Amino acid sequence: MARQYQTGKDEATLRREAYARRVAEGCDGATNRYHNDPEYKARRLAQNLAAQRRRNFGLTLAQFEEMQIAQNGQCAICQKPPKGRDLDVDHDHNTGAIRGLLCRNCNLMLGKINDRVEVLEKAIQYLRKHE
After folding, report:
1. Contacts for 29 with CB less than 8 Å, ≥ 6 apart
2. For residue range 28-45, what is the model confidence (pLDDT) as tens digits?
């Protein structure tokens, strides 16, 4: 409020003017290294993903890479390599134990059925019935 009385402009106008000054000085997103340097962006994304795995699962980058090598870089369920992204870390939601690496589709499938084996068995029966 105080700034409005000093300049006679509301807060939104002051923010727009400040943004216009930053753009004119070359400080907008278009000049940001993250947006302009694909190698830098890829490196930062990899670092963020590694930090997320470490935080969520206690999994180091070396351990993740060992798991990938053990699975030949393929999903533990469908045996296909991931498309355009790393494999997801699959874990038991009750114990937190890591089970393996899955592609996005297989990981989502298990999540949708809440890891219930009986639902998977019924799905298999259903698919076989309608072959």
Report:
1. 35
2. 555 577 778 889 888 989
